[in-house]
Design goal:
Elements: E1 5-6, E2 12-13, H1 16-27, H2 32-36, H3 63-83
Antiparallel strand pairs: 1-2
């Protein structure tokens, strides 16, 4: 079960990156353009202000590996459906 955060508006936020984005929107008076143009580069949340983690690498996967992963995930999903 995922942890959920409920802000003062009653909105439920399930992901930490979504909570950071909401904080940036709150700080910029809910103007998305101001989030983009944010001058506060010394803020610890600044790199995450678009709701993404800039430090994660994208995986370059071959088509064969992608198909293998897809088949494995299908088997996992099927076993979860059958068991519970």
């Amino acid at each position: 079960m995922k942890a959920k955060l409920e802000d003062y508006t009653g909105k439920v936020i399930e992901k930490p990156l979504d909570a950071i984005y909401e904080k940036c929107l709150d700080c910029s008076v809910y103007d998305k353009n101001e989030v983009k143009l944010c001058p506060c580069t010394d803020c610890v949340l600044w790199p995450f202000r678009f709701g993404t983690n800039p430090y994660t690498r994208k995986r370059n996967i071959s088509n064969e590996a992608r198909e293998k992963l897809s088949k494995n995930m299908s088997r996992v999903r099927e076993s979860k459906e059958n068991n519970g």
